[in-house]
UniProtKB/TrEMBL annotation:
SUPFAM superfamilies: GroES-like, NAD(P)-binding Rossmann-fold domains
Name of this chain's protein: Enoyl reductase (ER) domain-containing protein
Pfam families: ADH_N, ADH_zinc_N
Signal sequence, start to end: none
Length: 345
């Protein structure tokens, strides 16, 4: 195939005007450096982070204009002269922080987020350094594989990055968004028990179907942290996947056991939390900020997804590349469950 020259892509021009800063148009296909790989993207997926970047609420580095979205899966169509990891036809997924290869995340690596600092996946073709890609799991479609970059890897890091989850332990997941449903599926595959919270009867049924052992409706049960603790015979849960922030941390502290961990991942309910860090002492627990994960962790996750034939939960409503702004609005309105898929032709 000759090097394609032009393509369709979205850009975020800046912050301050919400989704009006998202613009769709024509662009050049990037030229390849010696270590780069050209990927024909087949699918992308959105994260809450993509919704708050144009709103100026994202706490990590960004540049503007930027091609949005971190999550993408596609096929290698061209490789630079020094590329050794990939060949044409390989199925690949993007690595969120391109510089986070293994071990702890560093400040330098945190400056390499795809869709934030590095141009992202809402386009037909993208070039990445060969170490910025991971092999797509064999058992997943492009739409499924595209969801792994951010939500998938973050929940994997929450379960394995500090103290690896063990069979028989209990994990509490909050809501039915992307991160939480991945955590539910990975925790189940690890032989752990799952307590899930959600907002409605319909979603209660869905998380039960996905295998949650207990489901708590936080709109009906305001003290769900205490209920979760009772479900563990008063001991508390080993790990909380904390995505609610201001709306949930007090309950998470009530739910967590002595020496348990609260993985601080998001702030869907607001970032101004009233609880104090001293409560990690009074509850004898660890609160750990998690920022996605490394290429090494993503490779481990891919192996686990293949071994257990895990399929990410993709919302039934899918969008084309041209309809990406509608996908942003759909996720912002919390109309979705799990991950939203954007098909790229
Ligand atoms: N630190 C990181 O590296 C990292 C990586 C990925 C995501 N995140 C963050 O993690 C959070 C979740 O991301 P996501 O992409 O999974 O989001 P998402 O898919 O947009 O999650 C939305 C769902 O979360 C639930 N929810 C909404 N508000 C809530 C609240 N106040 N309390 C509890 N649950 C609530 C709702 O489900 P129900 O109706 O079922 O309750 C809602 O449908 C975001 O804050 C995101 O920025 C951080």
């Amino acid at each position: 195939m000759a090097h394609p020259t032009s393509q369709k892509q979205w850009i975020v021009t800046g912050t301050g005007k919400g989704l009006d800063t998202l613009q769709f148009g024509d662009a050049k296909v990037p030229k390849l450096g010696d270590n780069d790989v050209l990927v024909k993207l087949h699918a992308a997926s959105l994260n809450y982070r993509d919704l708050i970047i144009p709103r100026g609420q994202y706490p990590f580095p960004t540049k503007f204009p930027v091609v949005p979205a971190s999550d993408g899966a596609g096929e290698v169509v061209e490789v630079g002269s020094k590329v050794s990891l990939w060949k044409k036809g390989d199925r690949v997924v993007t690595l969120f922080n391109q510089g986070h290869q293994y071990g702890d995340v560093t400040i330098t690596a945190s400056n390499t987020g795809v869709g934030g600092v590095v141009d992202g996946t809402l386009r037909q073709y993208a070039s990445f350094n060969e170490i910025g890609l991971v092999r797509a799991p064999k058992n997943l479609s492009y739409a499924e594989a595209a969801t792994l970059t951010c939500a998938g890897l973050t929940s994997w890091n929450a379960l394995y990055g500090l103290k690896a989850i063990k069979p028989g332990e209990t994990v509490l997941v909050q809501g039915t968004g992307g991160v939480s449903l991945f955590a539910l599926q990975f925790a189940k595959a690890a032989g752990a028990k799952v307590i899930a919270t959600t907002s409605s009867k319909e979603k209660e049924d869905l998380v039960k179907k996905l295998g949650a052992h207990y489901v708590l409706n936080y709109n009906k049960d305001k003290n769900w942290g205490e209920t979760a603790r009772k479900l563990t015979n008063g001991v508390g849960v080993d790990l909380v996947i904390e995505v609610g922030g201001a709306g949930t941390i007090a309950q998470s502290l009530t739910a967590v056991k002595y020496e348990g961990t609260i993985a601080i991942i998001g702030f869907l309910g607001g970032a101004k939390v009233e609880n104090s860090l001293i409560e990690c002492l009074t509850h004898i627990c660890t609160a750990r900020g998690v920022y996605v994960g490394s290429r090494q962790q993503m490779e481990d996750m891919v192996a686990a997804i293949e071994a257990n034939d895990i399929h990410p939960y993709v919302d039934s409503k899918t969008f084309s590349l041209e309809q990406a702004k509608e996908a942003y609005e759909y996720q912002w309105a919390k109309g979705h469950v799990g991950k939203i898929s954007i098909k790229i032709a």
